[in-house]
Amino acid sequence: MKPPHSTGRNVIAILAIPIVMLFLIVATPFSLGIASPFDLCGMVDAGSRATSLSFICRGVFYEDGIPTGIWRSKLPLLGQIDGQSPYFCLEPQTMNYLIDDQPLSSVTLVYDYMPNADERHMNQVLNKLLVQCGLTEEAGRTIDSDQQLKRTELRRVGKIKGRSGAAYWQAWAIRDKSEFGHSTYTVTVYTKDGIGDNIDDFASSKLGIPKTTKPANPDEIL
Predict the structure, then answer these.
(1) Within-domain flag for 25
(2) Given 92, 103, 118, 163, which is the most exposed site by the fewest CB atoms within 10 A?
(3) Which stretches are transmembrane (predicted)?
């Protein structure tokens, strides 16, 4: 028969293991400089491996896809809006994401297949996303509506100051009222180089950086 104190030590050891594991899961993302699952700036600053590890610790796992995979939350209540959970896209996305480490040019937060709503609600959702991502310095916003395509786009852009990598952000709310349409919301944080080909006249004028996008070629459209 084991002495009582020996049994007590075993119980303490058994209880300590999950407590330590839980502490590591909670503490690891903070130690990597990523304050929350929506800290897109921290992810861009930290790089691909640290971001991937922070996702896994927070119940966000990689799913293969074409042309690239996504990181989808497996926790049903993580950041749900209108009943939908978010997913994330890293650019570039490494296949060996816990081994290969490289700088990220952008990180995108996506809410897809959202119910269609009026522009007031669309702006409210964008406000909520930007606040939870810590993106408050807005440089400009615009709205584009195509009645023929039954499509409305709300767009905002802004600058990011005081970060080692993150420099600009863009947020979109896209409502599609076609037969099988829905709404999509995205927030993307870019590095200075990562914003690349995403600078049209609007972004150029509001962010003060040279335009890079080119007008569509009719031959390419056809």
Answers:
(1) no
(2) 118
(3) 12-32
